[in-house]
Structure formats: structure tokens, C-alpha cells
Design brief:
By secondary structure, the chain is α/β, with parallel strands linked by helices. Helices cover 35% and strands 11% of the residues. The protein has a domain at 91-354: Aspartate Aminotransferase, domain 2. The structure holds pyridoxal-5'-phosphate. Pyridoxal-5'-phosphate binds at residues 81, 141-143, 175, 177, 222, 226, 251, 253, 275, 290, 292.
């Protein structure tokens, strides 16, 4: 392991314009083999400022830039709640197959049968995995899946003439998208406290349901919750909300702890969203694209966002069925153009097929095992506020005895010096100095051990040399930012103006 103390930051790569030399070219254009045609003079430019660089310069420039960033392909990335797991390259090969990648979204049904069959099969598998039979692949992210789920719940009540149900229960450990979704859907949040064990406070839940049960449209809950804990009383929670007439929404962003172990449909959930870009690999982290399908039970099926893929004509022994896109009869409508992020569907399909049913169980078992292993090994060094078995992630309260001025942020910044991406900071909000650690199932024991050792070294450094942490990172291309100024005084350009052509 490369243990760095103070070290000069890496050189920043110059702009590609600074590599330019007049007359140098990186590409030889073929001779024009069609008759030239004159463009109108007003459309012609006098100058075009492009860098004049060789092909090798271009390649090296972008490879160097790519290495300035952290990535799951480069090193450990235990970013809790985000599931930065390895994305098998097989998925990428499949998504790039010309028949998928070059299919036009407006191509007619007959010429899209392969893609539609893939989407149909993915709907079926996702439904099977969570025990909610009907699935729409339309939502483009987890948050959009949530939004469609809450719109379905709202529409379900309204169509039954139950107009008073305008409140959604949300535990205070929830991901920020949950309350945001409720508000976007025009409903109101009732926040529920957690008890000392990190679970929903059942007494508080009962009280709200007794007093205002006829206003409750439903409850949104994450399982395992954002503390990484499986709700100990989930069956009672479901029963209390159902008895009050509300529906149960499961935020399925953490399904990677449950595959093949628990089916949320069997726990009584009515609707759930998946994050294909977390549970089913598919790359993310650079702002997309994501995919957040929703699964529902029979009563919500008519409201699914569309279009969904259905069998239009049954097949026979020697003929495949005819697949087509349909809008569910009382659909909440479309969420975006066309039919979801199809490239993500291909990747998730490839992932599920490559692992198979038993393999997906192992994914979850190993994700849980790895998280518990790291948790157990860190327990002597760091405060673990909920010391019980966790799911695929766990939270540390990053306060160290003997290092009163060291904060979660300092530990995170110092991890960068050791080549490790920081865990999620200051989330969930109910744990002070939270570090949410998610190792994922794809890391080796050696990597986990190395992370534990680094965390222990950092705890020691925090006591003996806290400045080292306060000034970290030392080795990254840029030092710690003034985060307020970085957000308020944006500098979007490397320098005020590029040189004029010919300078
Ligand atoms: C990631 C996440 C979401 C939101 O999903 P996006 O795809 O980022 O919109 C919602 N809830 C939880 C618990 C999450 O971890």
C-alpha cells in the first residue's frame, strides 16, 4: 500500500489549446469524392480556432484527464446509498450491439421485436425479483420512479372518491428525494421519527394513523433503511398503514441487499421503484443516464406510467409472440419521450442473465457479508451508532476520542490521499458526523482489509497530527475547495479568453 503523508499535488494537465502547434494535424482527411457545392458566403467563417495537435497528443491528453477523476474502474468507491459496484464489461458490449444501439426509437413495432422482447423479459424478471407482477420501465431515475409511484397512489385514492388522503408518511432517515417527490406530487409529508434502534418509531406511527388515518395516502419507506438497517417491525408498519387505508411505497434503491432473500411484494408493499443503476450494475455517478422502473400489484396496474411492453399476439411452438408498446388504461401518463433509457435496460438484462437466480442471491449475500465484515473490523476504532447486523451498508459516527477537532469531512478528504473515494458524508441526517459506508459485493477481501487499515491509520493520524487531516487532500490535483465560494462564485472557464487564432 502506498501510504502518503505530505506530497505535492499532481500536475494539472494543460488545456488542449496549450498543446497546439501551428500546422500540426492529427487526422488525414480523404479526398472529396462528391462534387463540391458552394455554401452561401454569409454562412462561411473566416477563422475556426481549433487546437492543432497530433493523434497521440489527443489520446494522452484525454487519458490523463480521465485519471484525474476517481472511478470505480480505478479504485475502491464505498459511497453509501449510491452502490458504486463494478459494472461488468459484458453489459457494455451488449448495450453497444448495433441492433440495440442503432435502433431508432420511432422504428415500427415489427422491426423492433428484439428490443421489445428484451424489455418484456426485463419487466417479468424485475416483477419476479420483488414480488410485484406489473412493471413499467419508463422512469429515467430512482427519483422519477418515486414520483410516478406517488402519482399512482394519489390517483388510486382520487378515483375511489377518497379525496381527503393528501398526506404521505416519510421516516426522518429517508433519502432527500422522498420528501421532494411527495411535494412535487402535490401532497404533504408527515415526518416520522426513528427510535433508538434506528427503526421507525411504532408508537409515533400508530398515533398518527389513529388521529389522522383518513388523511393518509400512504407511506414511503426504504428497506433496508438509509442507515443500512432492515426495519425490524416492517410487517407491523405495513399493517398499521394498510389498516388506516394508506398504501405502502417501498424505495427499492437498496434492493441489492434483498435480492433472492426477501420479496417486498410478500411483505405487503403495493408499489416499489428499482434503481437499475445501483442494484443491477449499469454505470452512473456522472449524472446519468439512470433507470428507475416501478413495480406494482394488481390494484395499481392500470395506473402505471407508460408505455409498457405487452404481448399483442400469443406465440406458438414455432413462432415468437408479437410484442408491442401499450399505455395502461388509466395511466398517470408519460414521464419522458419514448420508453425509458433503453441502454440501461439492456445492461440490466445482461446483468440478470449473466448471474441467474442463484447468482443474484449471492450478490445480495456477499454485499451484506462485506458490509458486516468491514463494520465489525472498524467497531473498535470508530463509533458505530447502531451496533447490530446491517444490510449492504452501515453508518459510522465519525467522532474520535482524543481528536475533538476532526470531522467526518476531514477523514473523507484524507482518504483521497490513500487513493480511496470517501464514503457518503453527513447522510443520513439523523446521525451526526455520519459516514455511510457501502463496500458492495464486488470487492475482494484484500481491498476491504486495506480500507480498514487505512481507516485505522487515519484515526491514529487524527490524534497525533490532526493538521494532516485538516489540510487534506495533499495528493489530489486540486486542494480542498472553499465550498461556499465554489458554489456562489462560479469560475466556469480555465482562463478569461482564449488566444485569437494565429497568436
Ligand atoms: C439513490 C437513491 C434514490 C434516488 O435515486 P436516483 O436514481 O438518484 O434518482 C432514492 N432513494 C434512495 C434510498 C437512494 O439511495
Amino acid at each position: 500500500m502506498n501510504v502518503m503523508t505530505k506530497q505535492a499535488p499532481k500536475e494539472l494537465e494543460p488545456l488542449i489549446y496549450d498543446l497546439s502547434a501551428a500546422g500540426r494535424t492529427g487526422a488525414l482527411l480523404p479526398d472529396c469524392d462528391v462534387p463540391p457545392s458552394e455554401l452561401p458566403a454569409e454562412l462561411l467563417r473566416d477563422t475556426l480556432r481549433l487546437p492543432e495537435v497530433s493523434e497521440l497528443q489527443v489520446i494522452r491528453h484525454f487519458v490523463k484527464l480521465s485519471q484525474l477523476n476517481h472511478a470505480i474502474d480505478k479504485a475502491f468507491y464505498p459511497l453509501g446509498s449510491c452502490t458504486m459496484k463494478y459494472n461488468p464489461k459484458l453489459n457494455e458490449d451488449m448495450a453497444r450491439l448495433a441492433g440495440f444501439a442503432q435502433l431508432h426509437p420511432l422504428a415500427d413495432t415489427e422491426s423492433s421485436q428484439g428490443a421489445l422482447a428484451l424489455m418484456y423479459q426485463l419487466q417479468q424478471w424485475l416483477g419476479e425479483i420483488v414480488g410485484l407482477k406489473h412493471v413499467s420501465l419508463a422512469p429515467a431515475a430512482g427519483a422519477q420512479g418515486e414520483f410516478s409511484g406517488i402519482l399512482m397512489i394519489r390517483k388510486y385514492h382520487l378515483e375511489r372518491g377518497d379525496t381527503k388522503r393528501t398526506k404521505i408518511l416519510v421516516p426522518n432517515s429517508a433519502h432527500g428525494t422522498n420528501p421532494a417527490t411527495v411535494t412535487m406530487a402535490g401532497l404533504e409529508v408527515i415526518e416520522l421519527p426513528a427510535n433508538d434502534g434506528g427503526d421507525v418509531d411504532l408508537d409515533a406511527l400508530k398515533r398518527v394513523c389513529d388521529e389522522r388515518g383518513d388523511e393518509i395516502a400512504g407511506m414511503m419507506i426504504t428497506v433496508p433503511n438509509t442507515l443500512g438497517l432492515f426495519e425490524a417491525h416492517i410487517l407491523e408498519v405495513v399493517e398499521i398503514v394498510h389498516n388506516a387505508g394508506g398504501l405502502m411505497y417501498m424505495d427499492g434503491a437498496n434492493m441489492n441487499a434483498l435480492m433472492g432473500v426477501v420479496k417486498p411484494g410478500e411483505l405487503g408493499f403495493d408499489v416499489l421503484h428499482y434503481n437499475l443503476h445501483k442494484t443491477f450494475s449499469t454505470p452512473h455517478g456522472g449524472g446519468g443516464p439512470g433507470s428507475g422502473p416501478v413495480g406494482v400489484d394488481d390494484k395499481l396496474k392500470p395506473y402505471l406510467p407508460g408505455p409498457i411492453v405487452a404481448i399483442l399476439e400469443e406465440g406458438s411452438d414455432d413462432e415468437a409472440p408479437l410484442y408491442g408498446l401499450v399505455m395502461p388504461e388509466k395511466s398517470i401518463g408519460r414521464l419522458k419521450a419514448f420508453h425509458g433509457n433503453f441502454g440501461m435496460h439492456v445492461r440490466a438484462y445482461a446483468y440478470i442473465r449473466a448471474y441467474g437466480a442463484e447468482g443474484l442471491c449471492d450478490v445480495s449475500r456477499h454485499a451484506v457479508l462485506n458490509a458486516n465484515y468491514v463494520r465489525a473490523r472498524l467497531m473498535d476504532t470508530y463509533k458505530i451508532p447502531y451496533p447490530r447486523y446491517c444490510g449492504h451498508e452501515f453508518v459510522v459516527e465519525a467522532r474520535l476520542d482524543g481528536a475533538p477537532d476532526v470531522h467526518a469531512l476531514d477523514i473523507s478528504k484524507r482518504l483521497i490521499d490513500y487513493g480511496i473515494h470517501p464514503p457518503t458524508n453527513y447522510f443520513p441526517l439523523i446521525v451526526p458526523e455520519a459516514l455511510l459506508i457501502e463496500p458492495t459485493e464486488t470487492e475482494t477481501k484484500e481491498t476491504l482489509d486495506e480500507f480498514v487499515e487505512v481507516m485505522k491509520i487515519i484515526a491514529e493520524e487524527a490524534r497525533t497530527n490532526p493538521e494532516l487531516l485538516h489540510d487534506a487532500p495533499h495528493s489530489a490535483p486540486t486542494r480542498r475547495l472553499d465550498e461556499v465560494r465554489a458554489a456562489k462564485q462560479l469560475v466556469l472557464c480555465c482562463r478569461p479568453a482564449l488566444p485569437e487564432a494565429g497568436d
